Amino acid sequence: MDKVTKYKTIIEEALSHQASIKISNLPAIEQQLIIDESGGQFLLLNVGWQNKRYIHGLVIHIQIKNDKVWIHEDMTDIDIAGKLIEQGIPKSDIVLGFVAPYARGIEGFAAA
Questions:
Q1: Which pLDDT does position 51 carry in this prediction?
Q2: pTM of the predicted model as reported, rounded to 2 decimal places
Q3: 60: which strand partners?
């Protein structure tokens, strides 16, 4: 299995697991996993109604670009980068896209 295929499998498994967990304080909210296989995009969304308020929000956005795993958004407390590292993606192949370019390599993550 090539590196990108392996990374896609790891990301899909991690996000599928996260999507299966009900949000205890938002029982009517559904977590939806959206995968664009050809574009290498993975989105986890919260969708539904909480009382009289409609919820539709991005939770996690990951992209595979130039053989690197770009984490563009992580609005969770699970540390998705840590989960991906535990599953075999090296820090050197993970770019924290939400961190300013000049600071990305500080913790051993890829700069780009």
A1: 87
A2: 0.92
A3: 44, 74
